[in-house]
Design a protein that fits this description.
Chains A, B: GO terms for molecular function: DNA binding; DNA-binding transcription factor activity. Chains A, B: It is found in: Cytoplasm. Chains A, B: Modulates transcription in response to changes in cellular NADH/NAD(+) redox state. Chains A, B: This is Redox-sensing transcriptional repressor Rex. Chains A, B: Homodimer. The structure is a homodimer. Chain A contains 9 helices and 10 strands. By secondary structure, chain A is of the alpha/beta class. Chain A folds into 2 domains: 71 residues, Arc Repressor Mutant, subunit A; 113 residues, Rossmann fold (3-Layer(aba) Sandwich), CATH 3.40.50. In chain A, the strands form 2 sheets. The first copy, chain A, has a 7-stranded mixed beta sheet with strand order 6-7-5-4-8-9-10, with helices on both faces. A 3-stranded antiparallel beta sheet of chain A has the order 1-3-2. In chain A, α1 crosses α4 and α2 packs across α3. Chain A is globular. The interface between A and B is large, with 67 and 71 residues. The structure holds a DNA duplex.
Chain lengths: 225, 225
DNA sequence: ATCCCTTTGTGAACCGACGCACAAAGTCAG
DNA sequence: CTGACTTTGTGCGTCGGTTCACAAAGGGAT
């Protein structure tokens, strides 16, 4: 079709990586609506970013656009998916099957993106053995065995804060290097292990800050005493 | 107690605001363990950040430390809480009571930080009327009425993607200016409305990217870092 | 084949955030 | 009261990311 764009510079900026899933989502929507080609302007609009930023982001992957035309939707979906590693199947284990763990287990957004919930683990004898989202909840004592047996490479921590570090240490010890942490604690991990954290309460606090400023901003100097 | 702390600069960097909840959490832990005073070094350690960054962050709020000693834990908790607006009570409505909405409704981390789940709303007649976390689920037709009646100022969207924009428009129309969006869509809102988004699938995709790179590392020329 | 129009890919200026390193400020012992 | 020691608050160099603006590249019409 065109000159073989090489596998590209492996040094993709973090900020770009964080946006690729956004573009991918927008592109999936377009593919569903049978849109064959899209301009950086339109795609940027759909993803809620600046078009120059989008073009620069995509340029990190290679030269996949056609000047005067835009980007081929299908082709771009494939390239981004490959770059993100979504063309392979990732086995995910969820540790902690409380309210949140349960919700995550049932969340459809994972499966549709190449992620497969391969195991549920909990410490509470009350839930161990239960069937959730078609999976049997296994005991925390089996943690290491389950991870190895199922080929789990990404662990989602949905445990209480107090248990998170210990579970983290154990999964790292058996070779897991990617962790998504929902527990409200700062995990300490060795170099080479990636931890991403999602803290619902923090998001609300940030909103509250801005809300407060909006409410008090116009007139009040906000009672500093 | 000490020199009058001036009304701090109203222009606190976003990056700083995003970290304040982190410091606050660490400080709460210390207060529980009856630690009266903490140095920037120790607090930074507990929060997982650089100590110079922490000092600079805190300096945006005012001069609340004592040279040679550190920061008074209680005092700092109060100052950060006030800055974030956590000294007041925020009424939160959760729209969409599926797996995720339910988990959020039961999540304890909200209440403990000055947030109060004041309403649950859903469109499914099957769940409307149910009692969840001590709250009655109300019908989406009542959305505007409920928001006004309960004084809701922050809305959490846990609806399916397809419904999110419409709900968003409606809550914005009745004056809500702070939204926490869990639906995998880019919301468009007028100026002055803050939207923060949490997308679980995006976090996993970012992890997958790094994991893939690590996996390919030993053989491929990846450790260019 | 040539010209015009569209859109990409990127050079370069700008902006904010990070972290080092240090002077200023305060404590505490004697 | 003085001097040694600790820790804050910040000036400044650096770096990564964002945005503008435009030359280069390709398509399509005539």
């Amino acid at each position: 079709m065109k000159s073989p764009s090489q596998p590209r510079d492996r040094g993709i900026p973090d900020a770009t990586v964080a946006r690729l899933p956004l573009y991918l989502r927008a592109l999936h929507g377009m593919a569903e609506r049978a849109i064959a080609t899209v301009s950086s302007e339109d795609l940027a609009m759909a993803a809620g970013v600046n078009s120059a930023k989008l073009r620069k982001d995509l340029s990190h992957l290679g030269s996949y656009g056609t000047r005067g035309v835009g980007y081929d939707v299908e082709y771009l979906v494939y390239q981004i998916s490959r770059e993100l590693g979504l063309t392979q199947d990732w086995a995910v284990a969820i540790v902690g099957v409380g309210n949140l763990g349960r919700a995550l287990a049932n969340y459809g957004g994972f499966v549709s993106r190449g992620f497969r919930v391969a195991a549920l683990v909990d410490a509470d004898p009350e839930v161990v053995g239960d069937d959730i989202a078609g999976l049997n909840v296994e005991h925390i004592d089996e943690l290491e065995a389950v991870i190895k047996r199922r080929g789990v490479s990404i662990v989602v921590l949905a445990t209480p804060a107090a248990a998170a570090q210990e579970v983290c240490d154990r999964v790292v010890a058996v070779g897991v290097t990617s962790i998504l942490n929902f527990a409200p604690v700062v995990l300490s991990v060795p170099d080479g292990v990636d931890v991403r954290k999602v803290d619902l309460s923090i998001e609300l606090q940030i909103l509250a800050f801005h809300e407060q400023r909006k409410a008090g901003g116009p007139l009040m100097a906000v009672d500093s005493q």
